[in-house]
Please model this.
Amino acid sequence: MEEAMKIPPGELPWGGLQRLSLLDYPGRVASILFVKGCNFRCPFCYNPQLVRGEGREIPTQEILDYLKRRKGWIDGVVITGGEPTLYPGLVEFLRELKDEGLEVKLDTNGSRPDLLRELLEEGLVDYVAMDIKAPLREESYSRVAGVPLHPREIRESLDLLLSSRIDYELRTTVVPTLLGEGEILEIAGEIKGAKRYCLQQFRRTPFHLDERFSRVPPYPREFLERIREKISGYFGECLVRG
Model:
């Protein structure tokens, strides 16, 4: 897998800031921060510029200054990417957010369980959304993640969330040509007992990492709803999103 971008200590490679979202952090008004760089190469990814570490970079201090000014207007911050857990500096950054009284939602691919464990043990995140890309088999996960990958780290991160008291969701983007009903049922069996599982609709855009996915139509929503009905008893909550 590709590693994190090389950055100075204490910095994070921020590639974007969405000032306000009512959707991305359940029950919260939040700002969204996008980190550059990712160790996966999911072909259907619609943030290729972030994944490849391209484009303008926003200094960490500029981000912090903005968030401090927004206190009272926002409840929390969503940290997404890219893959935020590639960067050890995330720990200190989140300490600063917690000192400001902000709640934190982390989006992650689950490939860095050691850093995730540190964040959980220190109470630096309030909500974690973790992707389950495919059935937890090497061949399947490598195909969907776009890099050679044994999912042992994914399993370790999954176990951390399942055994924690934190609010979390597991989610799978259901991409035609990569995942079908059989694969989703297999995933559901592997994560049975999770608090919340989301089937995410694939969104076709002009900007996928592999441009061929711009021509792949999403599954009908009815297809996802039918799967949801089959697996909803496995989870505290099971949703179709998108």
Summary: The helical segments are 48-51, 60-70, 90-99, 113-122, 138-145, 152-162, 181-190, 221-231. The longest helix spans residues 60-70.
